[in-house]
């Protein structure tokens, strides 16, 4: 038994070192990526050659994708590393969702997407705030990203039996039933998907849901026709 415990401890230590290495590397990449963007933007402004400007535009788009990947790697490492004793903090899920949608509204407007919120009052949840912010942001940003211009993203917060329920629905292409479990795997992407992405968004959401002992289900939105994501948290006991 002692040898098994020792082996498990070595595995945990190794995993922790790997997470720290990935987080440190991702953090260190932020500075050169930001510097690259500033320099490319300056070169693009100075150039009068349309061919060169187009190449600079491609570089900026690639830089954006790399920066998003770095940000998601940091989110993933943080969601994995949050200790259990950081979780039991009473939060208002409805207030948190309203706050995040106010922050994301500009992105939705820029893409011509209407955000629709249906929210009950006083929906409590026991959780870790920053992780829940990451979950909400990933779900809503994904819905905006995959919805067509002029489309609608609907966010619903409600009590449902013994659960606090967060639902995000969109008008995008959805995810085939056969792939709805696989898309939670890190770096997995639907092979038919034309939008660029890292394949980390739903992996982050899944990790945070598990941390909060919440269930997560993907299906089709009957109202909007795209993907519907339902996250159910157990309601905290009444005081």
What characteristics describe this protein?
alpha+beta, Heat Shock Protein 90, 7 strands, 5 helices, about 240 residues, about 20% strand, Helix Hairpins, two-stranded antiparallel ribbon, 5-stranded mixed beta sheet
If strands are numbered along the chain, what order do they take across the biggest sheet?
2-4-5-7-6
Assembly state: single chain
Question: Which CATH class of the largest domain applies here?
Answer: Alpha Beta
The Rg value, from CA coordinates, equals 20 Å
Just name the CATH architecture of the largest domain.
Answer: 2-Layer Sandwich
Overall outline:
globular
Order of helices and strands: HHEHEEHEEHEE
Tell me the CATH topology of the largest domain. Answer: Heat Shock Protein 90
Secondary structure class reads alpha+beta
What's the story with the biggest beta sheet? 5 strands, mixed
Number of domains: 2
Strand content: 15-25%
The rounded distance between the terminal residues' Cα atoms is 42 Å
């Amino acid at each position: 038994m002692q040898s098994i415990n020792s082996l498990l401890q070595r595995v945990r230590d190794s995993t922790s070192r790997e997470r720290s290495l990935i987080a440190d590397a991702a953090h260190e990449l932020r500075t050169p990526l930001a510097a690259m963007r500033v320099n490319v933007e300056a070169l693009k402004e100075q150039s009068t050659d349309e061919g060169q400007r187009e190449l600079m535009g491609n570089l900026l788009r690639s830089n954006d994708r790399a920066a998003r990947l770095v940000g998601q790697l940091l989110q993933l490492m943080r969601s994995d590393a949050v200790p259990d004793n950081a979780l039991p903090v009473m939060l208002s899920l409805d207030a948190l969702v309203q706050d995040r949608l106010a922050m994301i509204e500009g992105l939705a407007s820029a893409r011509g997407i209407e955000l629709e919120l249906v929210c009950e009052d006083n929906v409590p949840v026991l959780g870790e705030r920053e992780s829940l912010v990451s979950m909400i942001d990933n779900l809503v940003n994904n819905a905006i990203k995959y919805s067509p211009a002029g489309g609608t993203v609907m966010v619903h917060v409600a009590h449902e039996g013994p659960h606090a329920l967060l639902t995000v629905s969109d008008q995008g292409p959805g995810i085939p039933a056969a792939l709805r479990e696989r898309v939670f795997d890190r770096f997995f992407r639907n092979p038919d998907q034309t939008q660029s992405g890292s394949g980390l968004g739903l992996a982050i959401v899944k990790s945070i849901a598990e941390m909060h002992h919440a269930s997560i289900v993907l299906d089709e939105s009957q109202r909007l026709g795209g993907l519907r994501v339902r996250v159910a948290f157990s309601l905290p006991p009444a005081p």
